[in-house]
Amino acid sequence: MKKIILLSALLLTFSEINAQDEKIQKETLSEGFNKWSVDVNAGLSKPTAPFSTNYYSSNTNFIHGDLGVRYMFNNKFGLKLDFGLDSFKNKSESFAFEGKYYRTSLQGVVNLGRILSFEDWTQRINLQAHSGVGFSFMTNDKFDGNDDMTNFILGLTAQFKLCNRVALNADFSMINNINQQYTFDGIEDPAVKEDRGFNSTIYNASIGLSIYLGKHAKHADWDTSNPRLDELERRVAELETKLIDTDKDGVADYLDEEKSSAPNAIVDTKGRTVDANKNGVDDKVEAYVDSKTKSSGSEGHSIEDMINGGYITVFFDFNSTKPTADSYSAINFVTQYLKSNPNSSVEILGFADEIGNSEYNNTLSATRANFVKDVITKAGINASRLSVKGQGEDTSVDASSADARRLVRKVIFKLK
Question: Residues near 171 by Cβ (< 8 Å), separated by ≥ 6?
Fold first, then answer.
């Protein structure tokens, strides 16, 4: 009973694995291989048990043959319906007997060569496992009628591809029988009849051919496609296509709503031009500058005056080396100016408030200036056009005022 339960579990597991693999393959591949084959084998048969006392089977029972029709769901799993015949007789030192064993079985086939990636080292050698259940019966010269039984078969088949239509097979199979009543020598043994379990074993060793049917050049036995790998390669190719940036504006085509932006145009995250007046400065940065000039009463000043006058300022939180979020607009403004004026360079001056040790504040001011330099460099400005200087503490405001100290934790710019 345990063996029957185990067999059922194996068949259910095989069915589930095959269903999942077939689903993936249907979703990702246009199958280009044949699925049907006819498998023909002939060779040796050796019954090993049960036998009566002083009865033995010959080791060279040359009459074994089987014919199978196989269908592969994909290049890893399939089903096979086959018919087999074994003829056996006594060994020379045994009492005489002669019998025949007929069977049919439905088997699951696992293409181990594809699962184990044999194609990485050979294109002609393959290995398959097969297992299943079926009906069989035995005849013997010592009893009339048939001894009917159920068979369980398990085997391995080595294959050598002769051409795309034919493969040479070497198979070794073990067959266990259930409900066998007679020994192979034809004696009705009460112990055998009472057991009626997996009490009978025959071994087959044979060679033969797999003849492949279908319109395609290759059969599933030798198809080396990998659905999961093919799907991954498809996704990578799709990603590479998506990353194409036709107008070189830094926005990939699949996100770009304006795929023909002018060279060096300033665009937003959707690839749309944001420099409406075509002056080479991002409209948002210009709006930032306008707000600064209006609040400071410096309308009418040139951009250069605005930069050198300290109106374009990068602010920092207390003891921080990274700018506040709204200060990146000032960095963007200077970056765009340098891009539009390739002969210009700028000095980046860092400051700290008076809180803390002066030596520490000197280092902090230089670190802030270097951080801003790195941001501008990463935006495409050559570092040779940028110089950095830490100015230490700015003592121009009331150190006791928290609001005043916010104004001197800064980086400003001087054009050269």
Answer: 41, 43, 155, 156, 157, 158, 204, 205, 206, 207, 208
